[in-house]
């Protein structure tokens, strides 16, 4: 990393983007070996929020009979009120561009307040059912609150909660592992189409937000969710026994791969590029298998076996080359 930084500085000097005096000052500063612990402190703050909210959940679970429901809900409401009181007090108000709190701790108070709000509404619905049997509303309400907090306080962590809640509202678990294990795409094709539709809506919202300059830095988060949701839903349906179904989802995956290829360059996002390649590669292999599954390879099976190692090794080499080329293009 140090050699990379030094090389970048030399490159800037050679291109005339910095003066010789600035070049020497940068070298002198780096020779002091000063490093920032900002990321580490934020990580500990994030972990403290997770541990605190997890502790609240464990407290409710283990003492639900002795404490009482009203007392638990009242305690949650007080803590939520305190969190949001300080957040609104020190917030700069809603702005279309990127904003930050003067003190980074307040960002994690927003996160804590939002998570506790989700716990509060979920617990309230479970115990007293204020929404009746409409459990979707119990998901939609904290989702709306999360979107409001994400945009008002400019909080990326809360935005991920909001998108996850939105996906849960349409019947999805957003994490790739849950999508693969918990959702039955085969039994309910409507769920698969809902996943694709949700991904498309996230993409359209990202495009619209860029046009009106609304929290443009949120775009990468929306696109990351859209990429995973669309790609996993499409790949799962490539193994469908219905020819029309897997052809339709093959088309969805192809269009998605092309779009996220362009988006990865637009946003200079290595994560989008890598996952786009992985999903596209998996989908392409399944597609080829479906095309050739009815062919008889009995006469050339030995040749196929010999070529397979070369194919996979070549795929790995090509993947590494593509990633290196992409990194070079976005850093120049």
Question: In words, what does this structure look like?
Answer:
This is DUF2157 domain-containing protein. This protein has 332 residues and is an all-alpha fold. Among the domains are: 1-35; 37-169, no CATH class. Helix content is 78%, strand content 0%. The protein has 14 helices and no strands. The chain has helices at 2-14, 20-31, 38-62, 64-67, 69-90, 105-128, 135-153, 156-169, 176-181, 189-211, 219-237, 243-267, 270-292, 301-331. The chain is globular and about 75 Å long. It starts with a helix and ends with a helix.
- Number-wise, the strands total 0
Helix-strand topology string = HHHHHHHHHHHHHH
Strand content: under 5%
User: Total helix count?
Assistant: 14
Radius of gyration, taken over Cα atoms and rounded to an integer in Å: 25 Å
What is the first-to-last residue Cα distance? 17 Å
For the sheet with most strands, the description reads: none
Shape: globular
Which parts are unreliable, with pLDDT below 50 for 5 consecutive residues or more? 173-179
Classification by helices and strands: mainly alpha
Helix content: over 70%
Mean pLDDT: 80
Keywords: Membrane, Transmembrane, Transmembrane helix
Pfam families: DUF2157
Protein name: DUF2157 domain-containing protein
Transmembrane segments: 43-61, 67-88, 108-128, 134-153, 158-174, 186-208, 220-238, 244-261, 273-292, 304-323
